[in-house]
Amino acid sequence: MKTNRRNFIKSGGIIAGSIFVGTTFPSSLRNNFINKEKNFTMNFNFKPYTLKLKHVFTIATNSRTTTPVVITKIEYDGKVGYGEASMPPYLGESHKTAIKFLSKVKLNQFKNPFDLEDIIDYVDSIDKGNPAAKASVDIALHDLVGKLMNQPWYNIWGYDKNKTPYTTFTIGIDKPEVVKQKVKEASGFKILKVKLGRGNDKEMIEAVRAVTNVPLTVDVNQGWKDKQYALDMAFWLKEQNVEFVEQPMPKDQVDDIAWLTERSPLPIMGDESIQRIPDVVKAHGVFSGINIKLMKCTGLREAHKMLNLAKSLNMKVMIGCMTETSCGISAASQLSPMVDWADLDGNLLIKNDPFKGTEVVDGKLKLTDYPGIGLVPDKNVWNKI
Ligand SMILES: [Mg+2]
Fold it and tell me: For residue 86, what are the β-bridge partners?
């Protein structure tokens, strides 16, 4: 196992380089959708905003009631692309860091928004880190380009909008009576994600199972330290109709995770271990699959590449989110027809969503027909920002 992984990592660069399919538009196509007569430039703006959560949100490492985000806008030729950076505090970005980063972004040097690769490479090169701030530019740019083509991104990529998966709805760690109440409130969902890793794992699952028989997934958020405990839990969880275990152990316990994956009856998915493209290569032979999140990977362009890379390596793919508005969720959901599991419930956890976009109908993600990332501002909230 270990040897295979090392060999693979050695050859990973070549494999990764040979299979990437970016969204680079041929010049004939790029020029069809822009008005060359008029010298339009991209006008970039951003605004900090604070999401209010409906309930206190608890995972293995912390609890909170708000999430700082930044809403971005790129205007060009009368069209507006919207983007978002969502920054849960434990990931290290904040209003302050995002404002500092986004103040350096000068999009007016580019004449053609269809130069996605060049523009996003430039944004990535401004500074290291800042993945959510970078994603906010990437998402707005994709929204704009889709609007200039008058097509939603699932069409541009060639995905069937009817093939979206069910989305999980997250049940946070709490006392059994609170868990039971939350599960009852989530009765419209066909699959639930249960947070584990705070020492009451079986109690959590038993509380959920007292109320529902729907399939479950579990997210341990690095909460288990012992590989044998993790393996015993994986066998027990399989009997409880759990579909996979997400990030069971700390990301630095690579060999323990690989040991677990080799023996586990359930797929072991990497989340905290997986941020950008090189992490997919490292995850091969360690995890069964990866959790792609726009706010970790700098946006749709890289997410699309990670999806293709993981699929080509025969790895499972899930697409996840932070607590975020319908902007980030609608963007991520454009990729969802291609994933094994979706965990796109972040907009359902907030009280002050400034957008309407992808919705959950009978537990399944429902993509809109709107171009770009498929959203419209909700005037009631938007006008107050
Ligand atoms: Mg997770």
Answer: 69
Residue range 27-152, CATH number: 3.30.390.10
Taking the centre of ligand 1 as the mean of its atom positions, its distance from the CA of residue 246, in whole angstroms, is 6
Where are the domains positioned within the chain?
Answer: 27-152, 155-382
Task: Kindly calculate the radius of gyration of the chain based on its CA atoms and give it in whole angstroms.
Answer: 21
155-382: CATH superfamily: Enolase-like C-terminal domain (3.20.20.120)
pLDDT digits (tens, 9 = 90+) for 171-217: 989 999 999 999 999 999 999 999 999 999 999 999 999 999 999 99
**Structure token digits, residue 368:** 């809109």
**Residue 213: burial class (beta carbons within 10 Å; 0-12, 13-18, 19+):** exposed
Residue 60: which pLDDT band, with cuts at 50, 70 and 90?
A: low
Q: Does the fold of domain 155-382 match that of domain 27-152?
A: no
Distance 282 CA to ligand 1 centre (A): 18
* pTM as predicted: 0.92
Torsions phi, psi for 347 (to 5 deg): -75, -20
- Whole-number Å distance, alpha carbon 57 to ligand 1 midpoint, is 13
What separation in Å is there between the alpha carbon of 40 and the centre of ligand 1?
A: 41
Ligand 1 centroid distance, CA of 219 (Å): 6
Q: Cα(247) to centroid of ligand 1, in Å?
A: 7
